[in-house]
What does this fold into?
Amino acid sequence: MYSIADADAQYFIDRYVYHNEKLWTLYRENKVSKGRLRKARFELALKDVNVEDKALAKRLGEAYLAQCPMKTKLMDGSIEILESLAGIYRLHIMSNGFHKTQLIKLKESKLDVYFEEVITSERASAKKPNPKMYHFATELTKAPKEGTIMIGDNLDVDVKGALDFGWEAIHYNPKGIGHSYPQVRHLNELESLLIKRG
It folds into this structure.
């Protein structure tokens, strides 16, 4: 019986990451379904290590979905910046991730208390950067475009999508990708940047 331990584990992980990112792009473009994304990422990664076993891929997918939302490691400075901003701003989450998974992640990480709304693509029936998702968020939160700021780690999906809709945006850019958009390399830089903008 084959086990993933028989292959180079890092290679398998790398292939999973590759296929997962590719499938998420297709999911955002409505070219694959939620079910196909969850299923195919493990099927394709296993195939890359010469294993074609749909039953195994299904078990891996189920185990991943059960464990992933339970991981609670946060970026350095997460709680500190949320504590600071929560006293000044109304905070919401916008995610293309699956709604149930996002709720579990927030609860397990003890971040749910900071956010009023969890706005997911499933609730909005649209995915970032589709303007329909930003419109849904605006209607739901009753927040005016002027003064609404998106803070996100994806330059195209979060930052450019928000700017195109008429919001302000800040790129959380720990890797220092070169561009001219407002950005921070560390979360602890956010407060001073927001004060300057406000």
Remarks:
- Residues 148 and 167 are 6 Å apart (CA to CA).
